[in-house]
Amino acid sequence: VAQGSNVIVLEKDRDVVSATIPIEGSISGVLKASDGNVWVATTSPAQISKLDSQTYDVIRTNEVTVGSLSAGWGATPGITAIDNQLYYSGASTNIYRHDFETGVSELMIDAKDWVENANIVYNNIAVHPITGCVYLNTIKGYGLDFLINNISIFRPEGNTLVLEKNYENHTRFPAGIFFPAAF
């Protein structure tokens, strides 16, 4: 669990904190990695770290030089991952990918170029843990403009994302996109 600049470890059947892991920067996302370890994203400095889930040691930390790792005001982590490919948007319509192996971060797409009325990102993006498609939920605006909304699905193709599907006007301020296979 993220708590400021610490990752707090909570264990099943225990009512106390098992461990507190200090992290440099303000944590914007904590996420289970596909290998059983833990991804941690921070702002100031903008970094993605991989923690060993058994020892709580930092395996490696990469600087992110493109885009923002901010989670905004969302209820979901500021990062999402499939294998060693991490996606983030900084709560904007720009979707970035960070390859943890190479350390390269790049802008993949601006959803506004493909999705009409994609003005406000409502919670953060999520990558499907099997297909690798990136899901983005947007609303046109506040007031009655929240009724104009999109769930957009982007398929990775090389160094870009391609709009695969767009569902219009199905949401009412969703709490985020979560895939059970990721847990």
List the helices and strands and how they pair.
Layout: E1 2-3, E2 6-9, E3 19-22, E4 26-32, E5 38-43, E6 47-51, E7 58-63, E8 80-82, E9 85-88, E10 94-99, E11 104-110, E12 120-121, E13 126-127, E14 134-139, E15 149-157, E16 160-168
Antiparallel strand pairs: 1-2, 2-3, 4-5, 5-6, 6-7, 8-9, 9-10, 10-11, 12-14, 13-14, 14-15, 15-16
Structure description:
There is one protein chain. Helices cover 0% and strands 45% of the residues. With 183 residues, it is mainly beta. The strands form 4 sheets. Strands 12, 13, 14, 15 and 16 form a 5-stranded antiparallel sheet that branches. The chain has a 4-stranded antiparallel sheet with strand order 4-5-6-7, with no helix packed on it. Strands 8-9-10-11 form a 4-stranded antiparallel sheet, with no helix packed on it. A hairpin with a 2-residue loop joins strand 15 and strand 16 (160-168). The model has no long low-confidence stretch (mean pLDDT 94).
The total of helices stands at 0
**Main sheet: strands, sense, barrel:** 5 strands, antiparallel
Any idea what the radius of gyration is? 16 Å
Q: What is the helix/strand order? A: EEEEEEEEEEEEEEEE
Q: Ranges with pLDDT <50 over ≥5 residues? A: none
Q: Beta fraction of the residues?
A: 35-45%
Shape: globular
Our measurement of the CA-to-CA distance between the termini, rounded to an integer number of angstroms, reads 14 Å
